[in-house]
Structure formats: structure tokens, C-alpha cells
Design goal:
Chain lengths: 123, 491
């Protein structure tokens, strides 16, 4: 052993790795290449799934309430906080629920769009 | 007396605020959509102000008083419709750049035939919506002054026409925003006084065993009618002509979403109140008509205060007549001017007169139904025609021109037929009455099915530019991409 360790050259083995595209991805969309179409379809599908999810939840809650009143007649006359339960729900609680649902949706939809924009502008 | 003063002040205020806009509306584009310079809260207030019509202000309480708990679905649907609109259409629709529904139809389907059919439907829905506004203006005016019904209708029709002619959309935006807050106050302040009166009366409640407060009660086919009502209101909101124009005044798709969120909040706050009016009306045994909101404060509070409160709700009711009618008139007139008369400010003016005179005539001629019932029919037509067009157009690439046309004809045609059968030939009995008075449960599925099936059968008629249109509808504005060169036609 004579003092210093021998120096070695450290290099990446991936010298032939794919180059970054020289043009932004938005050009793929502008030229309607297959890649561009794939990106567009993924954006539309993401947003559509989100919309469909919200609509499904909404349909279950809204469509479920009359069904519940139909199948469980005792609920029609049930009381909540001293008031008739159907009134508390339909004339009160449902409105803040709409706002909360809408707020969550807007947050997620904007996040999806930001992700898409980041993907497009990544260099 | 003070109620008459209130009516006059609301009319004057609307005209004066409208006059401010006159200096700002110089070019045609300004005239239609206020040059897109409206801030989000203004915009949301304006949407709320425009949307809360006589049906919301008077009609809901009247129907709740008449039929009980099942009618609570009406305001729920009229609010929830904005949630559906938010998630399915708001941002893409703004990004489409369309001023009106026919614009959207043309941009998406690249077809003048679809555009023309949409124009006809816009005008029909607009007139169907305007007619009961004028009718209830007559009713309230008669309740307050004893004048014949046509006088109140005429008064509102004239002010609306003058307002739209003088200011165009810019002024309407300010007028509408002001009207939302006026309507909210006009319902909230009397409510506080009435609740105090109710409390000092020892909180009287409903007669024991009164089935009025129970859901699924009081009509012949309550389950069908409830579901049909839900479908019409939740899906019809997006297809109303006067709502869509407002979205154009957002700067971009993101703002359109946020505006819709604010709208939901504003509407939710407002719709908490009509149910309480209906309840108090029932407790104090008022006659079940659309005028319950007007007569209730005087009945419960009495004296000078009661008279002032009556004046306030009357002012709110006229704000409702004016705001919705103005918004609808602008939309209907815009479509008539652009698609039938060939565009330009002059034809817009003539179209405005046409847009007001026809429903005014209908208001005098047609059978008088509760205002919220007729407006509900307008929602059913919108849900059976424009809802499928928008939803499929925005999310489904394989929608074809032929599919859209046949879906609009089938759904819109059937719904319009049911409406005519109800208004002209009604009332019917048994299932016929339920199916015709609440058509959405069958016309909406028919419309969607026809649109999808015919599109699948005519794959060669997918619009050639659909890929570019999808880019336009769905990519955020921050990205620099080619969105195509479609513009709404110069007006």
C-alpha cells in the first residue's frame, strides 16, 4: 500500500440513453402525432373519471334518499334535532354538502390540469 | 302603498343602473358579453341574480305549501344542477369560446344544421321560461294593487325591453349582481321578523298527524314524479340559455370552475329560506298559492313593520322578475338576431322586441299554472336536449352530426310535446298526467340513447376537426398549444 488509493474514472454506463426531445411535448399535440393523441386522451380520461366519480356519489345520495323513504317508511316521520328528518336533510344539510363536494372537485380538477401542464413543459 | 313605492324603486334602479352601461357598450361584442371584464364575485352574483327567478323567489314556497315535503327537491335540484354543471361542462364550455349554445353546437359538430336546431330550442326554452315570469308579475301586481293581471306583466315586459335595449350585457351584469343581493335581503329580513313573531306566538306547530310534512305524499305517483323532477332539475341547469352566456365572462376555464363554486354557495344560502316560508304558511293556514311569500309577512307581523316587510318582499319579487327576464331576453334575442336576422346591433334590437312580445302574449293566453311548475317544464326540455348534446359533445369523440341532430329532435321534440300537452290540453288524469307533467324521466334517456345509437351507426360523420376541438376544450390555458381557429361568428 503506497499512500493514496488509485484514482478511477466514474462514468455513466447509459451513454446511449434516450435524449430528451429537443422540442416541447406540446408540439406532439399540435401535430396530432400518436404520442400527442395519447397525452390528450389521458388528460380527457383523467378529468372524465373525476367527473364521473362525483356524479356517481351524487346519484347515490340524491337517488338513494327517495328510495330510502320508500323502503323504510318510518324514516319519513323520523325526527332529527327535534325537526322532521327529511326537512333537516333536504332543506338544510344538503346545501353545505354540495359546496364541500364542489370545492373538493375543483381542487382535484385543477391538480389534474397542473400535472398535465407539468408533464407537457418538462424539459 | 309602500309596496307600490318599492315596485317603482326597483324598476327605476334597474333602469338607472342599466343606463350606466350604455356608455360602455359601443361595439357589438361589448353588447353581448360585456367584453369579459367581469370579476369572479360579480360574475357569480350575477349568475345567482339571473338564475333566481320568480319560480325560486315565489314559486318554491308556494309549491311546498301546496304539496309538502316532496317539493323540497325543487330547490335541491336547482342548486345541485350547478354541481353537475361544474363537473361536466363548466371549464370545457368556457374554453370552447362559445357565446351561446348554438355557438357551441357549431364549434363542436362543425354543422350549421345542428346550430340552427339548437337556436330553435334556445328560443323555445327561453319563451317557456319567460312566460311564467310575466304571469307571476301580473299575479303579484294584482295582489298588491288590485290592477288587472296584464298590467303587471306589461310593466315588467317594458322595463326588461328598455333595459336590454339600452345597456346590453354589460349593464345586465351589474344589474344582475345587485339583484342577487337584493333578493337575498328581501327574503331574509322578513324571515327574521316572522320567526320572532312565530316565537312570540309560542312556536305553534303543524296539527298533530298532519301528513303534509312527510315525503312521498300528496300526489298520485309520488315516486315517479320525485325522480323525474330530480332528473330534470339536475340535468336541465346546464342547458339553460341564460346561464351559459355568463360563463363566457370568465377569463378562462379555471375561473369558470371557481365562479361555479361561488354560485353554488350563493344559491345554497338563498334556498335555505323558501322552505321556511312554506312551513310558516302551513302553520298559519295561508291559502296555497304563489303569493304566499308576499302575503305572509303582513299576516304574521302586521302594522307598519308588516307593511314595510311586505314592501321589501315585493321589491325582491320584482327584482326576480326583472333579472331573470332580462337575462333570458338577452340570450333569446342574441340567438334570434344572430341566427335568424343576420347579426348586427340593429337586428339585436328588433330581436329583443320579438323575444319579449311573444312570451308576453303567451302569458295572457295560456292556462295559468304555478310558476315553478312551468319553469320546471323548461328545465325538462333543456335536460332532454342540451344536456346530452353538451355532455356527449365534451366527453365523447364519436358523437356525430347525425347523432346530435336526431337526439335533439327526439328528446327536445318529445319534451316540447309533453309541455304543450300539459299547458294547453291539461290537466290530464292518472299516469298520463304524471308522464306529461314530469316528462324528464323518459325523455332524457330517450335523448341520450338516440344520440349515442345514431352516432354509432354513422361513424363516417364524426366531425373532421374533433381532435383539435378536444385540445381546445380540455387543455388548460397556460399551455401554448394550437386550439384551432374557430371563433364565434362576428355579430
Amino acid at each position: 500500500m503506497t499512500g493514496k488509493p488509485r484514482r478511477v474514472v466514474v462514468t455513466s454506463p447509459r451513454t446511449a440513453a434516450a435524449r430528451r426531445p429537443r422540442h416541447p411535448l406540446t408540439r406532439e399535440i399540435d401535430e396530432q402525432t400518436q404520442l400527442g393523441e395519447v397525452y390528450m386522451r389521458s388528460l380527457v380520461r383523467t378529468q372524465f373519471r373525476l367527473a364521473l366519480f362525483v356524479c356517481t356519489v351524487l346519484a347515490c345520495v340524491i337517488g338513494g334518499l327517495p328510495l330510502l323513504f320508500l323502503l323504510v317508511p318510518e324514516l319519513r316521520a323520523a325526527r332529527l334535532l327535534g325537526l322532521p328528518a327529511p326537512w333537516v336533510v333536504l332543506a338544510g344539510l344538503i346545501y353545505p354538502a354540495f359546496v364541500v363536494g364542489a370545492w373538493l372537485y375543483v381542487r382535484q380538477a385543477e391538480r389534474n390540469e397542473r400535472d398535465f401542464a407539468d408533464l407537457m413543459e418538462r424539459r | 302603498m309602500s309596496s307600490i313605492v318599492a315596485i317603482v324603486s326597483v324598476m327605476l334602479a334597474a333602469v338607472l343602473i342599466g343606463a350606466f352601461g350604455i356608455r360602455m357598450s359601443r361595439t357589438t361584442s361589448d353588447f353581448y358579453v360585456a367584453s369579459r371584464t367581469v370579476s369572479p364575485l360579480w360574475n357569480a352574483s350575477a349568475i345567482g341574480g339571473e338564475y333566481l327567478s320568480a319560480a325560486s323567489f315565489l314559486g318554491i314556497a308556494g309549491l311546498i305549501l301546496t304539496y309538502g315535503a316532496d317539493m323540497l327537491w325543487l330547490p335541491v335540484g336547482w342548486t345541485g344542477g350547478y354541481l353537475v354543471l361544474l363537473v361536466l361542462v363548466s371549464a370545457p364550455l368556457r374554453r370552447s369560446g362559445a357565446y351561446t349554445l348554438p355557438d357551441f353546437a357549431e364549434a363542436r359538430l362543425e354543422s350549421m344544421a345542428v346550430r340552427r336546431l339548437s337556436s330553435v330550442l334556445v328560443v323555445l326554452i327561453g319563451w317557456l321560461y319567460l312566460m311564467p315570469q310575466f304571469q307571476s308579475a301580473g299575479l303579484v301586481f294584482r295582489t298588491i294593487t288590485g290592477a288587472p293581471s296584464w298590467a303587471g306583466s306589461l310593466l315588467v315586459a317594458v322595463v326588461v325591453a328598455v333595459n336590454v335595449l339600452s345597456g346590453g350585457m354589460r349593464s345586465i351584469t351589474f344589474v344582475q349582481a345587485f339583484q342577487y343581493w337584493l333578493k337575498l335581503t328581501a327574503l331574509a329580513v322578513p324571515l327574521v321578523f316572522m320567526l320572532l313573531a312565530w316565537w312570540s306566538d309560542g312556536l305553534p306547530s303543524l296539527a298533530p298527524g298532519d301528513p303534509w310534512s312527510l315525503p312521498l305524499h300528496g300526489r298520485e305517483h309520488p315516486v315517479y314524479e320525485t325522480y323525474s323532477l330530480i332528473l330534470a332539475t339536475f340535468l336541465g341547469t346546464m342547458g339553460l340559455p341564460h346561464v351559459l352566456v355568463r360563463f363566457y365572462t370568465n377569463p378562462d376555464g379555471r375561473a369558470a370552475r371557481r365562479t361555479t363554486l361561488v354560485v353554488l354557495t350563493l344559491l345554497g344560502a338563498f334556498y335555505l329560506m323558501p322552505a321556511v316560508y312554506g312551513f310558516l304558511g302551513r302553520v298559519y293556514g295561508l291559502p296555497a298559492t304563489d303569493t304566499v311569500v308576499i302575503t305572509l309577512p303582513g299576516r304574521l307581523v302586521g302594522g307598519v313593520v308588516g307593511e314595510l316587510l311586505t314592501a321589501l318582499v315585493t321589491a325582491g319579487a320584482f327584482a326576480a322578475f326583472l333579472s331573470t327576464s332580462s337575462g333570458l331576453t338577452v340570450s333569446v334575442a342574441g340567438v334570434i338576431a344572430q341566427d335568424i336576422l343576420g347579426g348586427g346591433v340593429r337586428s339585436f334590437r328588433f330581436a329583443t322586441l320579438l323575444a319579449v312580445v311573444v312570451p308576453f302574449g303567451l302569458a295572457g293566453a295560456a292556462r295559468s299554472l304555478p310558476v315553478a311548475t312551468v319553469v320546471g317544464l323548461a328545465f325538462a326540455v333543456a335536460a332532454s336536449s342540451f344536456c346530452p348534446l353538451l355532455v356527449l359533445g365534451i366527453w365523447w369523440r364519436r358523437l356525430t352530426t347525425a347523432g346530435a341532430l336526431s337526439g335533439l329532435v327526439a328528446g327536445g321534440g318529445l319534451a316540447c310535446g309533453a309541455v304543450l300537452a300539459t299547458i294547453i290540453a291539461g290537466p290530464h288524469t292518472g299516469w298520463a298526467e304524471a308522464l306529461l307533467a314530469q316528462p324528464a324521466a323518459w325523455t332524457v334517456p330517450v335523448s341520450f340513447t338516440v344520440m349515442v345509437v345514431v352516432s354509432l351507426l354513422t361513424p363516417s360523420r364524426v366531425p373532421p376537426g374533433v381532435a383539435r376541438t378536444m385540445v381546445r376544450l380540455h387543455t388548460p390555458e397556460t399551455l401554448n398549444v394550437d386550439r384551432g381557429d374557430w371563433h364565434p361568428r362576428a355579430m
